[in-house]
# Entry
Amino acid sequence: MHIPDGFVDLPTAAVAGAASLGAVALSVRKSTRELNERTIPLLGVTAAFVFAAQMLNFPVAGGTSGHFLGAVMVAALMGPWAAVIVLTSVVVVQALVMADGGITALGANVFNMAVIGGMVGYLMLVGLKRLLPKTPTGYFFSVAIASWLSVVFASAACSVELALSGTVPLRVSLAAMASVHMVIGIGEALITSAVVAAVLSTRPDLVKTYDLPTGVLANRKARALGCRGRVWGWVLAALAITLALAVFVSPFASSSPDGLEKVAAEKGFAQAAPQPGWSLSPISGYVVPGMGGAGAATAVAGALGTVSLFALVLFVGRAIGRRSRGISSPRPGEP
Amino acid sequence: MISEYLTEKEHPAGPLQRLDPRAKIIGLISFTVVVVSTPARAIWVFAVYAAVVTFLIGLSRLRVGYVLRRALVVVPFVIVVAIFLPFFGRSGSGGYSLGISHMSAGGLLVLWNVGAKAILGVLSMILLASTTPFPDMLAGFRRLRVPQVFVLVVSFMYRYSFVFAEELRRMQRAVAARNFRGRWLWNVPILGRVLGSLFLRSYSRGERIYVAMISRGYEGTIGLSSPAVFGWSEALFLGLLIAVAVAVRVVASV
Amino acid sequence: MALQGLSFSIQRGESVAIIGPNGAGKSTLLLHLNGILRGEGPIRIFGLPLEERTLREIRRKVGVVFQDPDDQLFLTSVAQDVAFGPSNMGLSKPEIEERVREALAAVGMSGFQDRSTHLLSFGEKKRVATATVLAMWPDILVLDEPTSNLDPKARRQLINILANLPVTKIIVTHDLPVAYEMCNRAIILSKGRIAADGPIEEVLTDQDLLEANDLELPYGFAIPPAGIPGWSGTSRTRSLSRDAEDELTEHVAGLNHLVGDPRL
# Structure
């Protein structure tokens, strides 16, 4: 998801960069208030941890793999401002030192990974925590869902940026990116909740977003959840994949490839292509690929799909969470 | 893997290596910005850019194999765009010709656009990273008034990512030694717990570092001294690089 | 680990080993020596009461080299890290540079100024970590397990370097041969109290005492009978020739029921 140079044009990069700059400046300002001389080494080692953890590829199926992002994890543990600072540092070093992610696309990459992951992820986590039952199970579902969404949203933002730059048509890339990241996001969700559970069971003081009483019960529950990770990993995986297929792939498949090409040709992609990457306004002169006509319909459908997916996951989470309050050892059933 | 990217023992001495990091940071970033802003049609302009970068790489005596190996990062992205190619106008009319084929000319141009820019961008950053030891680069950014929080967080991150990557490797090995084979998504929770304990270790490492710091009199600020002067050679490098890039860029769009 | 009623004084130039099993309170003591833990009840170091006002002075006088050099060396380059302590002391730039040079020379790491800390070998890291503290010109050098995890060669190098440093040393360790080689006095710490304090030969040859405190000399290791001078060369003779006149460097007194600082 580290966009290289040339994949986003300068106007898009500038807009994303301005947004990122604002978010980062806000985070620095907010965090300096709570920052003491002790926080800096701790933020630093957390950044190093995320940097190292991002090197870890997790398996998805057979030989394919995804990699950990960690934004919601840091947000859950240390709050949104720390998450933005840590993730920004990681993304900047990856661009500067490893040439992973272009320097002109830095603003976009920071926006996708640090701002969406850290801030939006945190907001979703807090929002979900309100909606879901106030139990450890509810909390872990909020963490898992927020981190899953953070990855999906980041990939969606990435494809929007690429489309605005005229690099790939929005419909195609949104469908492809989002569905791939819906699966990768499951890994993110599992890892994030496992990490949070591990921290909660030994150092509950380090989990900033966990405000339930951290008594023996909570600890036991956190541990139990860690053990059950496998089971509800299945559940989440099954859920997400089914829904991903339903929401994204079926409309995509139903309109034949020929149809897609025809739409692309009609909707001015051919005209757009000759001057990619240097128009001075993001939408200067050409129709943003996929944003007009049938494309908009699909995008709206995609958005609606995401929302309904969100609602469904929420509903299931709620149901499971509620049951776990009554039963001593809850076992989420198949969806 | 991490050490392959971040060690500086790869760096031979050269004129670029001696420059103040600020000149290289500003110069190479501006160069990349100019490259990205160039219309894709102007193929010869990209040839000039490539010549500039190649010249600088040669001047720094970087090994070709090393540079190319590191430039491979962009390949997956270019492939992704290539996969999307059939979705671009393949209507035969194109309206624009590269001289290769009318079919998917627009798509090919997009591919050329991202491929050329991505490679030039990656080469510039490799040039920056390989001629500037990381501590110097940090000092450069600090002199360019990047907020202290970032400089310090990044400095810690650089220092400890090696330690943690090594710890992570050892833990993965220990897990593998007990017959764990992560092949499928449902194996991920185990990795999650490996990362969980790595986080706890990292955090207590952070706390120990803090203790070691206050025992040396740390009171909230870290003075990083770094001798560097922005002199004539820096000005010359910066001026020439930006002038050449901007000049060909302007000619290209005329 | 709670420490209670600990008090000892060390003479200038002396090298004292603090030995004891894990959990005896060694690390807790170490963290009090330069005021990282403050405990409950009065603590005096160098006769100075340990409080906010004296902290700076005490941290300058007592330099602690921690066990894991990766905890100590947190900056990216060797020179920067060695300069960290002196710059916190508010020294001028040339002074800092001078001290960095000097401290690195003292541990045999001259010419490593611009090296990245993470590229050093473990033994080199240990030596640089010692230099970071030496650069503050401490009156007492406190070393926590200086030889742990070192291979024999690096261990030997470090021992020789440390033995030749003209500074008062407290070595916290359970490497008894090292304690024997580098120190002339041993304090056994057990359950937060001083169980024994005396010349190292006496302490280490007292089988019952060692056993009672869960300590043991390595198999095959024997304290050479008195009168056979230095199988280990210079270091022993050096540390034995202390100047007894030069009195009193340190006091740690009245640590009552210390509980770990919640910040740690």
User: Anything to note?
Assistant: Chain A has eleven helices and two strands. Chain A touches chain B through 98 residues (CB under 8 Å).
